[in-house]
Amino acid sequence: MIFLLFWALAPAAEPSLSYYKDVEPLLQRHCQQCHREGEAAPMPLVTYKQVRPWARAVKEAVLSRRMPPWHADPAVGHYSNARVMTAAEIAIVRQWVDTGAKEGDARQAPPPRRFADGWQISKPDLVLEMPEEAEVALSGQMEYVHYIVPTNFKEDRWVSEMEVRPGNRAVVHHIGVYLRPKGSQWMSEGKPGEGFQRKSRISGRTPMDELFAQYVTGGQAQILPDGMARLIPAGSDLIFQLHYQPNGKPAKDRSRIGLVFAKTPPVERVHTIGVAEARFVIPPRDPAYEVRALWRIHKPVRLFNVTPHIHLRGKSFECSAALPDQSAVTPLVRVPHWDRNWQITYEFADPLKLPAGTRIHCLAVFDNSANNPVNPNPDVEVRWGDQTTDEMMVAYMDLAFPAEWPLLNLYRREPLPVQ
After folding, report:
1. Same domain, 262 and 125
2. Cα–Cα separations (whole angstroms), residue 42 to 36, 140, 306
3. Which one, of 199, 201, 207, 333, lies nearest residue 279 by Cα?
4. pLDDT exceeds cutoff 50 at 417
5. Residues 210 and 277 occupy one common structural domain
6. Is 298 found in the same domain as 169?
């Protein structure tokens, strides 16, 4: 009787969960986009045999919320591409590992998640690639490599889908593909067909030299909604800017971009702006140096996303939009704990309508102290530059506006009051 009483009062043991029934659906939803063969993650997590040796590491990563990678403050903004596991999902992973990470019955497995082989966009109408393979160093830090690729367009072309595909994901940190219109002097030191590195820290890029498309780890192709497209003016070049991360192995890369042309003239044009401040000097050993940037919207537009960009000394980043009469301030994104390994684009669930006169404010905080574990040298001043050991302060944003507007409508220069 005493035994039965104690047995009845004892807390029930946690039921064991299985990989196929409980855990595999979560990995499909949150992890396999990157954790599969040929993608950027260091190990695939597609089968039980692949996952089991990493079970404790997976549990650690999701409990600490290092994975899936998503750094926006949940109290700010609503994003269509949010990669966030719920508390219930995290509890399933924890419990599965703590009860033995059992395989279970394969008949309970969900159907395998299908990923498109090759292009994620529709079949490209045109593929432009680097004219040669780039040699990637075995180790150390590489300067950005640039390639000028002429489009040879005789007339303006509207593009509705675009995708940048690295030739070697193991060594490509990110790729920016810029549009350089005919007559621009930006990157004039380069020659088509030859890789080159910039000679000066000073960019010289004008607003017309647009960031057209990009690749980042975990990123996706850009497929614009019906009625929207990006413009490539006749005679433009595309400039590939490549950031390589040597991994100790011999490597080459030949990256490319696929374009799908709009079938009908668009109603709205999409253009990327950069809300940036390059005139900063971060003092040595400063643990919280603030850099602010301001952009004024001169015409009514729709804002689709925000991509903050800073480097190793980055500590936090936030952006907001203030209405012309200052009656309301809308937070756009807040990244309280910056991780330069993830250049995430935060896509708004509902594009924001910004009237003319709206001011976009961005604030980046930098930690140049010895307490920053990834700081390469806390004893030096830090300025704007391409290298990871330099710094940047920019938030890229995609705007949409009537297709017939001249682009200069967005860049009308006028004195701005000090805020």
Report:
1. yes
2. 9, 20, 27
3. 201
4. no
5. no
6. no
Per the structure, the complete domain to which residue 216 belongs is given by: 116-266
- Rounded alpha-carbon distances, angstroms, from residue 319 to 83, 118, 322, 331, 405: 20, 35, 10, 6, 26
Give me the sheet containing 210-216, strands edge to edge.
145-150, 237-244, 172-180, 210-216
- What are φ and ψ of residue 367, in 5° steps? -110, 100
> How confident is the model over 76-133, as pLDDT tens digits?
889 998 888 999 999 999 999 999 999 999 999 999 988 766 788 999 999 999 999 9
What is the chain's length?
419
Tokens at residue 316, please? 């936090």
Name the domain boundary from 43, 74, 108.
Answer: 108
- 22: DSSP letter: I
pLDDT in tens, 285-326: 999 999 999 999 989 999 999 999 999 999 999 999 998 887
Res 336 pLDDT > 90: yes
For the record, the structure tokens of 333 come out as 């994104």
Q: Which helix (H) or strand (E) segment is 399 a member of?
A: strand 394-402
Block residue for tokens 């299908």: 114
Q: Are 238 and 367 contained in the same domain?
A: no
Task: Identify the CA nearest to 156 among candidates 300, 299, 304, 266.
Answer: 266
Q: What are the tokens at 261? A: 């042309």
If asked whether residues 140 and 66 sit together in one domain, one would say no
What are the pLDDT digits (tens) for 109-120? 999 988 766 788
Strands (E), 4-150: 126-129, 134-136, 145-150
Measured between alpha carbons, how far is 308 from 62 in angstroms, rounded to an integer?
A: 23
User: What angle is formed at CA 216 by the lines to CA 212 and CA 219, rounded to 5 degrees?
Assistant: 90
Helix (H, G, I), strand (E, B) or coil at 255: coil
Pair (146, 190) in one structural domain: yes
Report residue 29 as tokens. 């939803």
For residue 79, give both structure tokens: 């994003």
List alpha helices for 31-105, DSSP H: 48-51, 55-63, 87-98
Q: List, in sequence order, every residue forming a beta bridge with 256; answer none if it has no partner.
A: 129, 165
